[in-house]
Amino acid sequence: MDNWEKVFETSQVVRAEIARSVLEENGINAVILNKQSSSYVIFGLCEVHVPVEDAQAAKQILTHDATLRETE
């Protein structure tokens, strides 16, 4: 995934999906890399990645999004 940067990570798949959705609603392409073990979902994280050129804007959007402020 050259030219892509991680902008968000979580242990909850649904929060990663929300982050991806928020970014796409703001015109930023985003993908989720699910690094959780398929046998034991308590191990590993889901990461949201965006193109490098959109990373700064994506981080700012996610920092200010009310749906993602809740701590895990």
UniProtKB/TrEMBL annotation:
Boundaries of every DUF2007 domain copy: 4-63
Domain of life: Bacteria
InterPro entries the record matches: DUF2007 (IPR018551), N-reg_PII-like_a/b (IPR011322)
Pfam families membership: DUF2007
Coiled-coil features, chain-numbered ranges: none
Protein's UniProt name: DUF2007 domain-containing protein
Originating organism: Rhabdobacter roseus
